[in-house]
Amino acid sequence: MESLLNQVPIGLSIGAVLLLIALGLTFTFGQMGVINMAHGEFIMAGAYTAYMLQGWAGGQAVLVALPVAFLIAGALGWILERTAIRHFYGRPLDTLLLTWGVSLVLQQAARDLFGAPNVQVDAPSWLTGRIEVAGANLPYSRLFILGLAIACVVGISVYMNRSRQGRRMRAVMQNRELAAVSGVATGRVDQFTFFLGSGLAGVAGVALTLIGPVGPSLGTYYIVDAFLVVVAGGLGQLKGAVIAALALGMLNSFTEFWTDASLAKVIVFAAIIAFLQFRPQGMFVLRSRALT
Amino acid sequence: MTGTEPLLRVTGLEAAYGRARVLFGVDVTVGPGELLCVMGRNGVGKTTLLNAVMGVLPPTGGTVVFDGEDVTGVPTHERVRRGMGYVPQGHETFPQLTVAENLQVTLEASRHRDKGAIDEALEIFPRLKEFLGRRAGFLSGGQQQQLAIARALVTRPRMLILDEPTEGIQPSIVQEIEAAIERLHKENGLAVLLVEQYLELALRLADGFVIIEGGAVQRAGTAEDLHDEEVKRLLAV
């Protein structure tokens, strides 16, 4: 029973990481219709940022890495959008292949730079403890990840709903052509959206260093689940992404506890497929009265 | 009516969807303060013409000159900032934004950024004032169309480009929209390029008209010519 309860913080923290990854995807997928397979490598870039900063920041690397990884991953995403993706708008299949290729190149680049074996990032000493609540172990690191995700979601939500740039992003997401004929420079909004979404993946990468080792293919483990979150939650929907991410994280960790890792994946996929049979549009959809 | 220089001069405009050509060299001229009505049956290329004029659909040939400047290669959003206010077909809004946000996002993208522009637009469509906090997607079609025109007005356009503004709108609001267009044109002296299928409205408001058929201008003239039998034949369905 105790070990079963221990799955809760594991599930929640995995869900929190998935949420950070999915937030970026839901922007780029929802706003631009781009299926960015290289998104996972921005996670990896974020994780290696923390690893690189260890030499300089020592035990506090994870903390220092959060803003740095956001900027580095964001810049990578921005460069990808500027140099490649923008030439392929409206061609989803080509974009998919293109970004998959970029993903492979980035993985190999990481292998060349950091070596194929996994590396370890040491958590700050103040994150190594744990507290016990109702018989369950709550490691500080997992709580930290949860807090980080909450802070990001609240921040993004306020930003999207209150700021000028956020309003612009929502306008483009909801009606790109109308945004253009309203005077909004949609191309510039796309650039920023890509930067923001990729930056969040970098933050997720830093969070992942608290959970396990860092390797060149780190992103590939999470990218598929993150896409599932986006699809199950409903496109461009913050609320849906939050619920879907936490549900998927919990489902993952519990099925893994009762079975094993690969069977758990099968069960989770089957559950998602079943869910989409009933709600192909995801949990939430943009509702409107199109015609009256 | 006609100044020395027309506000909008479209010359030899050609446009296509993929390999399907729709416009075969359209010439249209709108003077300052003029209301030009673009008429024609369904599917002759009226909407395509407006989209090509706005750069939403990049033309394959011809030029668009606005206010003496060639804007043919200028991005759509920049054309809007230069004073071309466009209200596309089908009462389009940002459905998940509130009415106020719909107007605000447009104001923030405009060149002048003067908050007074929102009040001016709401003055034209006072009905919208009670819905400011409501999401645009939950308005009725007629209210959405009023919002769509108000949104274009917020940019303080020098010319209003309207694509069948009363199509599929409940009759009570059609009158309000027509009155608003009339007021903007007659009192504020706003130039208007109006795509309209109904002869009655054109007869009442237009200074001039062009009739499009088969992707080219078949007939052009002044309001008086609209009574012509030949014109009625071209518009008959």
Structure commentary:
The complex is a heterodimer of chains A (292) and B (237). Chain A contains 12 helices and 2 strands, in the order H-H-H-H-H-E-E-H-H-H-H-H-H-H. Chain A is mostly helical and 292 residues long. In chain A, helix 2 packs across helix 10 and helix 3 packs parallel to helix 5 (92-114). Chain A is globular, with a radius of gyration of 19 Å. Chain A starts with a helix and ends in a 14-residue tail after the last helix. Mean pLDDT of chain A is 88; it is low at 287-292. By secondary structure, chain B is α/β, with parallel strands linked by helices. In chain B, helix 3 (99-109) packs parallel to helix 5 (141-154). The two termini of chain B are 32 Å apart. The A-B interface holds A 164, 167-168, 170-171, 174-175, 177-187, 286-292 and B 54, 56, 75-78, 80-81, 86, 88, 92-97, 101, 104-106, 108-111, 135-142, 144, 151-152, 155, 168, 170.
Share in helix of chain B: 25-40%
The pair of chains with the biggest contact is: A-B, 25 and 38 residues
- Please state roughly what percent of the residues of chain A sit in beta strands, choosing from under 5%, 5-15%, 15-25%, 25-35%, 35-45% or over 45%: under 5%
Radius of gyration of chain B: 17 Å
Mean pLDDT of chain A: 88
- The CATH topology name of the domain at 8-93 and 159-235 in chain B reads Rossmann fold
Largest sheet of chain B: 6 strands, mixed
Overall SS class of chain A? mainly alpha
Outline type of chain A: globular
- The CATH architecture name of chain A reads Orthogonal Bundle
Q: What portion of the residues of chain B fall into strands of 2 or more residues? A: 25-35%
Number of helices of chain B: 8
| Low-confidence runs of chain A | 287-292
* Oligomer description: heterodimer
The tally of domains of chain A stands at 1
Distance between the termini of chain B: 32 Å
Please give the number of β-strands of chain B.
10
Q: How would the global form of chain B be characterised?
A: globular
Give helix % range of chain A.
Answer: over 70%
Quote the CATH topology of chain A: ABC transporter involved in vitamin B12 uptake, BtuC
Uncertain parts of chain B: none
